[in-house]
Write a structure and sequence with these properties.
With about 260 residues, the chain is α+β, with helices and mostly antiparallel strands. The protein has one domain. About 45% of the residues lie in helices and about 20% in strands. The protein is built from six helices and seven strands, in the order H-E-E-H-H-H-H-E-E-E-E-E-H. Strands 1-2-5-4 form a four-stranded antiparallel sheet, with no helix packed on it.
Length: about 260
C-alpha cells in the first residue's frame, strides 16, 4: 500500500504545483481579441476569437507526470492484491481500463487480474468506462489514453477561450427576435468561431457584447474519442485524480469488508 499512497501523493503534489503555475500564467495572459458581426448573407451574428500566445511546454510535462502517477497507482493496486494472495506478479498484471465489454474480457483472458480477489475484481469491473453513460468522457479512460499519449508525444496544452459570462448584452435599432443561440465552443482562439446568435433577420445597428474567460486547455489526443476538441486543463486533471482515488478506496473497502 505504501507504493500506491506514494504515487497518489506525488500526483496530488504535481497537480497542486501545476494549479499554482497555471493560475499565475493565466493572470498574465493578454486579453482575448474578438471579431464579431453578421456572417455574410446570413442572419447569424458570430464571434471569432483570437489569442496568439505561446504556452510553456512545462505545463504539458507536468500534466503528463500527473496522469502517469495516477495510471501507475492503479497498476500498483493490482499487484498489491496479487502479492497479498501470496502469488507471483507477472508482466501481464495490470489494472484494466476498457471502453467496451469485449475489450475488458480480452484483457481478463490475458491474465491482467489473475489471483486478484473476486471482491476487488467486482469493483474494478463496476468502474470500467463501458459502464458509464458516455464512455468517451470517463475519467479512467482519460487517464489511460492521456498516459499512453504522453509516452510518445508531449500533451498539448493551449491557451483558449473557454466560456462566456452570465450575460449576453444585445442592442439593436429595433426590437430583435432571436431564433437560436449556439453554446460557446472551446476554441484554439486562432480565428475560429466561438459563439453565435441566430436572429430572425439582420437588424440595423446590431451590437452584441459578451464577457469571455480565457484559460489553458488540454487538446484532445488522437487516441481519445472526446466529443470536444479541447477540455479545461485543471478541471480534467482534478477529475481524473478524484476518480482514481475513489476507485482505489473502493477496492480497499471491498477487500476489507470481504475479510471482515
Amino acid at each position: 500500500m505504501k507504493a500506491i499512497e506514494a504515487k497518489l501523493s506525488r500526483a496530488r503534489e504535481l497537480l497542486e504545483l501545476l494549479q499554482r503555475e497555471v493560475k499565475a500564467f493565466e493572470q498574465s495572459m493578454p486579453a482575448l481579441r474578438l471579431e464579431k458581426g453578421y456572417k455574410p448573407g446570413t442572419s447569424i451574428y458570430a464571434f471569432f476569437a483570437h489569442l496568439d500566445i505561446e504556452v510553456p511546454l512545462r505545463f504539458g510535462v507536468l500534466s503528463g507526470e500527473v496522469v502517469h502517477q495516477l495510471r501507475s497507482s492503479l497498476d500498483h493496486l493490482v499487484t498489491h492484491f496479487v502479492s497479498s494472495e501470496g502469488e507471483t506478479i507477472t508482466r501481464t498484471h495490470q489494472f484494466p481500463i476498457a471502453s467496451t465489454r469485449k475489450s475488458y474480457e480480452r484483457q481478463l483472458a490475458r491474465g491482467c487480474l489473475a489471483s486478484v480477489p473476486e471482491a476487488v475484481q467486482t469493483v474494478i469491473e463496476r468502474f470500467q468506462p463501458y459502464n458509464a453513460q458516455d464512455p468517451r468522457v470517463s475519467e479512467l479512460l482519460a487517464v489511460q489514453e492521456l498516459n499512453n499519449s504522453d509516452k510518445h508525444r508531449l500533451l498539448a496544452v493551449v491557451a483558449a477561450a473557454t466560456q462566456i459570462g452570465e450575460q449576453v448584452r444585445i442592442s439593436c435599432g429595433e426590437n430583435a427576435a432571436i431564433t437560436g443561440m449556439s453554446p460557446p465552443h472551446l476554441t484554439l482562439a486562432n480565428g475560429s468561431e466561438f459563439f453565435a446568435i441566430d436572429f430572425a433577420r439582420c437588424y440595423a445597428d446590431t451590437n452584441v457584447d459578451i464577457d469571455v474567460q480565457t484559460s489553458l486547455a488540454l487538446q484532445r489526443p488522437r487516441q481519445l474519442d472526446w466529443p470536444f476538441e479541447l477540455a479545461p486543463l485543471l478541471s480534467v486533471l482534478a477529475q481524473c485524480e478524484r476518480a482514481v482515488v475513489h476507485v482505489v478506496s473502493q477496492c480497499l473497502k471491498a477487500i476489507s469488508a470481504n475479510n471482515g
